[in-house]
Please model this.
Amino acid sequence: MRLLNFVLALLVVALLVWPSLHGAVLLNGGYIDLLQAGLVTASAAPAALGSLEKAVAAGQSSGLWGLGLLARWQGDEARSRKIWERELALTPRSIPLLRIFHPQDEALAQQSRLRYPQYSLTGFWLGEALADKDVAAALAVYEETIAQDPADGVRWVELGILYLRHGESDKALAAYDRGCRLRDIGGNGCWRAGLLSEELGQNAEAIHYYQLTLRQIPNYAPALERLVGLEEEAKRDTD
Model:
């Protein structure tokens, strides 16, 4: 139960800070309803589900996503999906949740993208869902979507990863560089750009990217190790 409550808390934080949905309603009564329904013990789940269903039917709650979450927790995936599809038809506010629970669901991601193309998150979700099946198609979606949100450094790094999987090293490096310069949080664009530059035999560029990595993440041991190694190699070459 502690784990479930922790996950729920994280989901609320994600809704509050997710930049791609700042134009939408980020937090709805569903979460409050879910907590008030008594989701604190396993035995409370059926009562909580029934309570939320009545509230939604009476128009007293916007907690459809809460219903879907409870149905999923009870193991009823089909019911959960049906509820979330209904929510998706009404509002984009649950898209971050749906992506968390169904990251590889191409059909649901496609519905999300078709209904709400103005939100970049829908495109990145669709690209993620396509990536393991069709890298070229995923790339096309990512390239289109990143034009909507070009300041998202992490997405540039994800695009770079796709380019590399597609065998396009130069484009991958350019995408990593873009992420690096946007100070991607957690995307490691500078680090990846350094590794790829080194792999391509561009050691001077690799040194530069490792230095940038250390500016963003001081004392990052892998980057420091590679930087020292390349600098020593360069010194030997000039001696």
Summary: Confidence is low (pLDDT under 50) at residues 9-43. The chain has 14 helices and no strands.
